[in-house]
């Protein structure tokens, strides 16, 4: 029907109150599975170091004669490895006027930003710790900061690589952790996973967690259709709803059970992190903190309040052979 002539509408009115909700709705993908599963240790310097060792390969010819006059084997020293501490921060500056005006959804702009930036700092740490970042001692100037060697960079003993890929790992000549060289990406398969689990087991590792990007987790769930995997069945009750089983959260391999954990931060950080499927033994890796996350109060310079959240931390990989990685997989989509 046509509108009655001279109808006064909201489009014509002056003075209608706005209807801004007194709440802020934010999607907060704040989970940090890797940070949550690994332990934590206090550091006393910017260059934490530790020692690793391993047993000799079993000797199948260890058969000695009676009355043997021994010749002694060489004693192998421990291996000294280390990492560097990295400083990460989030900076906030709010005008004094904005802090005191009436606002919808929050009483204090500064308090809201501190809470938000704190979560953002944790997610930054999650992806940096998992990354293929090489370590660096820095040079003491703004052009070269200290950087920690990420988890992917450390893993060299049990790393399944795509074509053209090369291991990184701790470099005893330089005392630094070298980044791995990416290979050609390929699909995550049960065969690749099983081979890497086996290699890790032979090395002496006992990983308990498989950490994946969300897309890779969906690929993992398709392993249920493999001919060598026991099928799951649930009884459908006639009086109620039933469940369609389309996902798997545990993997009973020949060498132990793995909890399968998707990490959304791997996808949010992009393909450089998501291209890896990590086998993790949480007892053999720690977050090292020289200075834990804290709020700093810079001097005021102007009509504004300033706050800084920062942390100085490193990754302590007690023995990289305890872990494994299926690298160079499609971690974002079926082709990336």
What would the principal axes of the Cα set say about the shape?
Answer: flat
Strand elements, count: 14
Helix/strand order, N-terminal first: HEEEEHHHEEEHEHEEHHEEEE
Question: DSSP strand (E) fraction?
Answer: 15-25%
What is the makeup of the main sheet?
6 strands, mixed
Overall mean confidence score, pLDDT: 90
Q: What would a concise description of this structure say?
A:
This protein is an alpha+beta fold and 336 residues long. Helix content is 20%, strand content 23%.
Mind explaining what this structure looks like?
The structure is a single chain. The chain has 336 residues and is α+β, with helices and mostly antiparallel strands. The chain contains eight helices and 14 strands. It has helices spanning 33-37, 96-100, 109-130, 151-154, 190-203, 214-221, 264-269, 271-274, and strands at residues 39-42, 49-52, 79-82, 86-95, 159-160, 169-171, 176-178, 209-212, 250-253, 256-262, 277-280, 285-296, 304-317, 324-326.
């Amino acid at each position: 029907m046509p509108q009655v002539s001279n109808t006064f509408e909201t489009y014509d009115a002056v003075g209608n109150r706005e209807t801004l909700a007194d709440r802020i709705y934010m999607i907060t993908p704040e989970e940090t599975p890797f940070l949550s599963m690994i332990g934590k240790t206090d550091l006393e310097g910017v260059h934490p170091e530790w020692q690793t060792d391993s047993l000799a390969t079993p000797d199948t010819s260890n058969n000695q004669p009676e009355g043997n006059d021994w010749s002694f084997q060489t004693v192998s020293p421990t291996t000294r490895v280390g990492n560097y501490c990295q400083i990460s921060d989030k900076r906030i500056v709010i005008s004094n006027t904005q802090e005191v005006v009436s606002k919808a959804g929050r009483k204090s702009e500064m308090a809201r930003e501190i809470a938000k930036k704190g979560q953002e700092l944790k997610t930054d740490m999650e992806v940096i710790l998992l990354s293929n970042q090489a370590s660096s001692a820095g040079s003491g100037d703004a052009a070269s900061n200290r950087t920690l060697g990420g988890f992917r960079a450390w893993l060299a003993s049990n790393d399944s690589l795509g074509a053209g890929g090369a291991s990184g790992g701790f470099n005893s000549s330089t005392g630094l952790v070298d980044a791995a060289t990416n290979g050609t990406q390929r699909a995550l398969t049960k065969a690749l996973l099983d081979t890497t689990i086996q290699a890790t087991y032979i090395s002496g590792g006992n990983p308990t967690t498989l950490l994946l990007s969300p897309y890779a987790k969906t690929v993992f769930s398709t392993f249920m259709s493999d001919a060598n995997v026991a099928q799951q069945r649930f009884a459908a009750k006639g009086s109620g709803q039933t469940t369609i089983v389309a996902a798997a959260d545990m993997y009973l391999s020949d060498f132990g059970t793995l909890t399968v954990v998707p990490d959304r931060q791997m996808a949010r950080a992009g393909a450089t992190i998501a291209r890896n499927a990590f086998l993790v033994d949480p007892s053999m890796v720690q977050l090292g903190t020289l200075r834990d996350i804290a709020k700093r109060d810079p001097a005021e310079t102007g009509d504004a309040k300033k706050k800084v959240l920062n942390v100085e931390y490193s990754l302590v990989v007690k023995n990289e052979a305890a872990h494994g990685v299926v690298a160079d997989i499609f971690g974002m989509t079926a082709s990336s």
